[in-house]
Specification:
484 residues; alpha+beta; Beta-Lactamase; Helix Hairpins; Heat Shock Protein 90; 6-stranded mixed sheet; 13 strands; 50% helix; rod-shaped
Length: 484
């Protein structure tokens, strides 16, 4: 299997390669600049010496070795002067830096570089005229010294390049570690994350760069995943919480059948009807909870339903396993709303279950009121229980939240999901909720449903019946009055 290079290694190689290219390019430029500069400097020096000798000859100076050395004292430059006769220079009065036999080889009119005896020389020449006589002045400089200097320069630049590349790779390695450190933290965080704990977050760096944006995007993804897993866990908890009630009702009717329902056709039929109804209710509730968990508005049916009928049904079902408690139902005005029957029934169940659970005593009683309020129909449930403190009121609809220690220390059960589910049902029906509570006195919960303006009450036979919802109608019902 082909081994892949790590990103840090790639960055180090890329950084070292870039520095190497820059160093080589810089060295070439520096080499060309130094060699050309030295050549131009040497050429200017030789031209200056030749010009000085020309001025000397044209001024009538006598040509001799001593005169040449006096006019051009530079020991790195050798000079020769020859008279030109019929276009041919003849040695006279000065010596060349090589043997006379080599003079013919050394003479290259206009040549700036000549090679004599395998030695390269830089040359510069001019003609001087005195008394109608033409003199050729030529200066020579051993260019081998420049070549040796160039070789030394190449060695130095090569050494600098090698050291520079090594240092660049080392620095690139350090820079890659510093640069990729946030990514390393992301990897470590990702390795610590599991489905059971998505609370880990990547530390966001101060500089506003791409890595910070990556960390923010990764944290945002973790947040969405955490919410998704929480919603999944929430659904499971909701299902287990809400299935308790219909299972308890079915169990109550099953016990009723076991005790005396087998010999009483009326009790038998009532129990079977309730068991069938609760089974259907559980099936519908599971479907609605799935849709509600996805927050799909289309999951909620907006059909005419009767609040008083739902309240009576819930009270009757609760009597099967809630003993020695009283409930007062007061219905006045209209009781029809647009909503989902199963969801609203679930809402009343939750509120009634909490009212019973946190009452100071079962004899204290619970009141259910349905009445008109401005442009709304209000469902009010009042208990005489331990109440809720002002500090806890803003949070009672939060998931898994349970009010102060007084409520959690009563060993009444519950895990703080009921009111959260109730809150979602209220929002799905575009209703409003108000909670008034006094510790050790009681709690009142008001649910305001919008009056369904689209309903023609004359078209609904169920509304025309006397269902306890006529103005002024109220009655009381208690567990002691029930048949169960």
């Amino acid at each position: 299997m082909k081994r892949r290079l790590r990103i840090g290694t790639k960055i180090s190689i890329m950084y070292g390669g870039m520095i190497a290219v820059l160093l080589v390019l810089g060295s070439v430029i520096l080499f060309i600049y130094i060699t050309n500069t030295n050549a131009q400097r040497l050429k200017r020096t030789m031209e200056m010496s030749v010009s000085q000798m020309k001025d000397y000859i044209e001024a009538g100076g006598r040509i001799s070795r001593s005169a040449v050395e006096r006019v051009s004292p530079n020991r790195f430059i050798s000079m020769a002067v020859a008279e030109v006769l019929e276009g041919v220079p003849v040695r006279e009065g000065a010596t060349f830096p090589f043997n006379p036999e080599d003079f013919k080889d050394a003479f290259r009119p206009g040549a700036s570089m000549v090679t004599i005896n395998n030695v390269r020389y830089m040359a510069s020449e001019k003609n001087a005229v005195f008394n109608s006589r033409i003199y050729m002045i030529r200066a020579y400089s051993n260019y081998e010294r420049e070549i040796e200097s160039t070789k030394i320069l190449v060695i130095i630049l090569g050494f600098v390049n090698i050291v520079g590349v090594v240092v660049a790779v080392f620095i690139g390695r350090i820079m890659s570690k510093v640069t990729l450190n946030p990514i390393s933290r992301m990897i470590q965080t990702a390795q610590r994350i599991g489905a059971e704990d998505l609370s880990e977050r990547i530390e966001v760096s101060d500089p506003d760069d791409e890595l910070k944006q990556l960390a923010l995007a990764f944290n945002d993804m973790l947040k969405r995943l955490e919410v998704s897993f929480c919603q999944q866990a929430q659904f499971v908890a909701d299902a287990s919480h809400e299935l308790r009630t219909p299972i308890a009702v079915i169990n109550g009717y099953a016990n009723l059948l076991n005790r005396w329902g087998k010999d009483d056709p009326a009790v038998l039929q009532e129990s079977l009807d309730c068991i069938i109804a609760q089974t259907e209710h559980m099936s519908n509730m599971a479907k609605k909870m799935l849709l509600l968990a996805k927050e799909e508005q289309a999951a909620v049916q907006h059909l005419p339903i009767n609040l008083s009928e739902i309240a009576n049904t819930v009270v009757k079902e609760m009597e099967l396993f809630k003993n020695k408690w009283n409930v007062q139902l007061n219905f006045s005005g209209r009781c029809m709303i647009l909503g989902d029957y199963d969801m609203v029934k679930q809402l009343v169940w939750i509120l009634m279950d909490n009212a019973v659970k946190y009452s100071l005593s079962y004899e204290a009683g619970i009141e259910i009121d349905i009445f008109d309020k401005d442009d709304s129909i209000c469902l009010a449930i009042k208990d005489h229980g331990i109440g809720i403190s002002n500090e806890d009121l803003p949070y009672i609809f939060q998931r898994f939240y349970r009010a102060d220690r007084a409520r959690t220390s009563t060993n009444r059960g519950g895990i703080g999901l009921g009111l959260s589910i109730a809150s979602r049902i209220i929002k799905q029906h575009h209703a409003k909720v108000i909670v008034d509570s006094i510790p050790q006195v009681g709690t009142q919960i008001y649910i305001y449903f919008q009056i369904p303006g689209g309903i023609d009450y004359d078209d609904h036979e169920s509304i025309k019946k006397d269902d306890g919802c006529e103005p002024g109608g109220d009655y009381a019902r208690s567990a002691d009055d029930s048949d169960g």
